[in-house]
Amino acid sequence: MTIQEHVSLQPYNTFGIDANARYFVEIRTEEELVALCKGDFLKDKNLLILGGGSNMLFTQDFDGIVIKNSIQGFDTKHAGETIYVTAGAGMVWHELVLKTLENGINGLENLSLIPGTVGAAPVQNIGAYGVELKDLFFELKAIEIDSGEVKTFLHEECAFDYRYSVFKGPLKGKYIISSVTLKLHTSIEVNTSYGAINSTLNEWNIANPTPKEVSDAVIHIRQSKLPDPAKVGNAGSFFKNPVITKKQYDLLKSEFETIPGYPQPNNRVKVPAAWLIDQNGWKGKTLGNIGVNPKQPLVLVNYGGGKGAELKELAYSILDSVKERFGIELEPEVNII
User: Fold this and answer.
1) Per DSSP, what are the bridge partners of residue 150?
2) Helices 211-225 and 93-102 sit at what angle, rounded to 10 degrees?
3) Would you call 222 a catalytic residue per the annotation?
4) Marked catalytic residue, from 32, 95, 313, 333
5) What is the pLDDT of residue 130?
6) So what's the pLDDT on residue 256?
7) Which tens digits make up the pLDDT trace of 10-39?
8) How many CA within 13 A on the CB side of residue 101?
C-alpha cells in the first residue's frame, strides 16, 4: 500500500475528466483498508472512495485523499438451490455477473453491463430491466473509517430505496465497503417482464430463454442505447427517473397526453426522465466538446477535452428546463465532485 501525491484521476473516471488528487492510494485487501483507517493519515483529510469511477463527475481537483477500492475475491456457499455469492468490493460488476452465469448461478442477468464495481452496487441500489440490487442482497462487510472496525450490514440495515441506501444517507462517508454477499440460485427462473427484453428475445426467436440469453439480450439493448465509455466519455444515466404524486401526474397527463407513467406504491407514479428531457429538445444536442447522447438523452457525454464544470452546467440547464415546463425537479444520479 503506497500513498501517492498529485495523481491524475483521468484514468479513473469514465467521463475522462482530467482532475488531480492531492493524495491517492489503491487498496487491494481488507487488511490494508483496516490498517489505513486505523492509522493517522486519514485524520482531518477530505476522503473520496473510488470504485470504477462510473458515477463521478469531477469539476475540480480533489484536495484530499482518493482511496481506490480494488479489493477482489469471489466465493460461493451452497444451500440447496440457493447460493450465497460473496465478491470483493473492487471487482468489476459486469465481471461478477458473467462469472455467476458461467458457474450456473442465476439472478444477476438483468443487471448485466451496468458500469462500476461491486462495492458501489448496494450504495446506489443499482437496478435495471425490472430488477434491483436489493432484490438479491444478503449482507455486506464494511470498515468504519474513524475506527477501522469491521461491521456486517444485513438487508434491513441498508434502508434500500430507489437508487438509495443508508450509505447515501446517514452513513455517507462513514464506511468503506470491502465485500458484498448476494442471495442467488441455480433454478432456471428468469425475469423478462421488461418489454425491451421480450422484444429482443422475440426478434431472436427465443421462446424459453436461459439466464445467459436474458443477459445477452440486456447487453444488446444497453449497447444499442449507451455509448461505450472507452470510446466516448460518459457515466451512463446522469439523472434519476422522478417519482411524483398520482395527482400531479394526472394534471400533467391532461396537458401532455403522451407522457408515460408507471404506477408506484403509495399512490405515486414514476415518469421516465428521458422522455421529459427529450420533449425539451436536448437529445443529441452538442455544445463544443460535450453534449447529450443522440440515442439516450439520459446520458451526457464528453467527446474529448470537455471540462467537468461544462458538463455540470449542461446538466443544470437540463434540470431547469424540465422544471420550468413540467414542474418536475430531476435529480442527478451521478456524484458531482
Assistant:
1) 143
2) 150
3) no
4) 333
5) 87
6) 95
7) 999 999 999 999 999 999 999 999 999 998
8) 20
Question: pLDDT tens-digit profile of 214-240?
Answer: 999 999 998 888 888 888 999 988 999
Rounded distance between C-alpha atoms, residue 266 and residue 252, angstroms: 19
Give burial (CB, 10 Å; 0-12/13-18/19+) of 256.
Answer: middle
Catalytic residue among 22, 163, 313, 317: 163
Enumerate residues 6+ apart whose C-beta is below 8 A from 21: 6, 7, 8, 9, 48, 61, 62, 64, 65, 66
What the chain holds in terms of domains, given with CATH numbers, is 3-69 (3.30.43.10), 74-185 (3.30.465.10), 233-336 (3.90.78.10)
Per the CB < 8 A criterion, the answer to whether 52 and 95 are in contact is no
Cβ partners under 8 Å of residue 68, min gap 6: 12, 24, 25, 26, 27, 50, 90
Question: Residue 200: is its pLDDT beyond 90?
Answer: yes
What SS3 state is found at 86?
A: strand
Question: How far is CA 70 from each of CA 20, 33, 90, 168, rounded to the nearest angstrom?
Answer: 19, 10, 4, 20
Q: What pTM was estimated for this model as a whole?
A: 0.85
Q: Which position among 139, 213, 237, 310 bears the catalytic label?
A: 237
Indicate the helix (H) or strand (E) that contains 299.
strand 299-302
Q: Is 179 a catalytic residue?
A: no
The Cα–Cα gap between 252 and 18 comes to 41
Q: What is the mean pLDDT of the chain?
A: 94
Which has the closest alpha carbon to 200: 180, 182, 185, 215? 215
Q: Name, in order, each residue with C-beta under 8 angstroms of 229's C-beta and a sequence gap of 6 or more.
A: 14, 15, 16, 54, 115, 235
Q: How many helices, marked H, and strands, marked E, lie in the chain?
A: 8, 20
Q: First CA to last CA across the chain, in angstroms?
A: 25
For 257-303, write each residue's pLDDT tens digit. 999 999 998 999 999 999 999 999 999 999 999 999 999 999 999 99
213 an active-site residue? no
